[in-house]
Amino acid sequence: MTSTHAFWLAGRQATGEDTFDVSSPWDGRLVGRVSVPTVAQVEEAVAAAYAVRDEFAATPAHVRAAALDHVSKRLVERTEEIARLISAENGKPLKWARGEVGRAVSVFRFAAEEARRFNGGEAQRLDTDLGGQGRLALTRRFPKGVVLGIAPFNFPLNLCAHKIAPAIAAGAPIILKPAPATPLSGLIIGDLLAETELPAGSWSVLPVANDKMPTLVQDERLPVISFTGSEKVGYAIMDSVPRKHCTLELGGNGAAVVLADWASDEDLDRAAQRIATFSNYQGGQSCISVQRVIADASVYDRLLPRVVAAVEAQVTGDPSDDATDVGPLVSEDAAKRVETWVQEAVDAGAALLTGGKRDGASYAPTVLADVPADVTISCEEVFGPVLTVQKVNGEAEAFAAVNDSKYGLQAGVFTHDLQTAFRAHRALEVGGVVVGDVPSYRADQMPYGGVKQSGVGREGVRFAMEDYTYERVLVLTGIDL
């Protein structure tokens, strides 16, 4: 008999009237049964967060930092257990799940550090003009109010951490909604926060169904929304609440550019291995996975067979096996969508170099060449283990190809030339440029986000804290400077 997982309402465990099942995308087994909060319980959580907002903003930094440190340390202690939970509910290979726990450990540690130094205040003398003589301005940051954090399924622990840890560090109450497909990892964070002394109401973890979210999104007591997910849903949220502050981390179709100077056998072997690994890690279900390879004509013919071979060497199978590189997608429907997009490209003339096969929720790592520019897989985020390879002539054409997209999250540029690196940084319309590697690198303390239809705002602990707060100026009069 499977027990029901309670949710966290204003810092205490609670159960609702209904439940839903969480199943493994690998073998369909029941991973857990989760209780769903009622409308009244959601209202209780919102009311509690709103009521505690002033108290929480005034909570001493050491209290918030200690709570964040505690969660970080407890994640370390429970790493293997939590990694296996992530793998079970998400289908992520265990090796990547362990890495995700490690990143969440860092997120909470970074947040604890920022809680201790954030909002120290900046003094500005105002006697630079006659009218400001004897006056001093002190600027500090204060929370905008309660945060509604909406997390996706692909990093079910770490992206929940990226919502909740910066909010606590900044003194902003938060209501966290984990993804319906992967709620158990988010609820684990609640387990650990419940061991701390944070004020009741300062956090809740509510596995609310997606179709019940519009009311919560539009609630005026929740002035900040931090959303990670699809472009369609993210912009629908923003359009529905034009006066709220929204941070949206949406999609991408990350490009890895291989330029002419990256030409030795060692260079091309490394590029191929990195491309193969990071087009398929998480089953390709990462906003910064490699979807497009843009290679200079001078290296294309030597790079392409290396990429195909490296992709074919990826070990697919049971995500609980330490040897597995690529597990299933989050659902069979997700795999069917990828299958449809690949078939559309092939029917339009693309060359299928490897892969292209589906087995339930699993889709084989796939490489396509000569892909027409107007097919879906060229224009949208595939969010699956598929990459396309394109030949270009020279740096300018390569950079133009990167920019020929409605997305602009991150790009990778394989070059040894420092001047080329700076030109890429200037020319590429993305939120981040990674030189000498694929676009799939993210350090959890750095600013992370995109331009164009990849979203607005930035994640990364300190940058999220700035998003959750605003500057308030105090002018002191009669100051003898």
Features:
single chain; 481 residues; alpha/beta; six-stranded mixed beta sheet; 22% strand
Please explain how this structure is put together:
The radius of gyration is 24 Å and the shape is globular. It is built from 16 helices and 25 strands. The strands form seven sheets. A seven-stranded mixed β-sheet has the order 15-18-19-14-13-21-22, with helices on both faces. A six-stranded mixed β-sheet has the order 10-9-8-11-12-24, sandwiched between helices. A three-stranded mixed β-sheet has the order 1-5-4, with helices on one face. The chain is α/β, with parallel strands linked by helices and 481 residues long.
Mean pLDDT: 97
- Biggest sheet overview: 7 strands, mixed
Rg, nearest Å: 24 Å
Classify the beta-strand content into a percent band: 15-25%
Structural class: alpha/beta
Helix content percent band: 25-40%
Categorize the overall geometry. Answer: globular
Poorly predicted regions are none
| N- to C-terminal distance | 72 Å
* Strand numbers in spatial order across the main sheet: 15-18-19-14-13-21-22
Count of β-strands? 25
Number of helices: 16
Q: What's the layout of helices and strands?
A:
Elements: E1 4-5, E2 7-9, E3 12-14, E4 18-23, E5 30-36, H1 39-51, H2 53-57, H3 61-77, H4 79-90, H5 94-117, E6 122-125, E7 135-143, E8 147-150, H6 158-170, E9 174-177, H7 183-193, E10 203-205, H8 213-217, E11 224-228, H9 231-240, E12 245-249, E13 255-258, H10 265-280, E14 292-296, H11 297-312, H12 332-347, E15 351-354, E16 358-359, E17 362-363, E18 366-369, H13 376-379, E19 386-392, H14 394-403, E20 407-408, E21 410-414, H15 418-427, E22 432-435, E23 451-452, E24 455-456, H16 461-467, E25 469-477
Helix pairs in contact: 3-5, 4-5, 4-7, 5-6, 6-16, 10-11
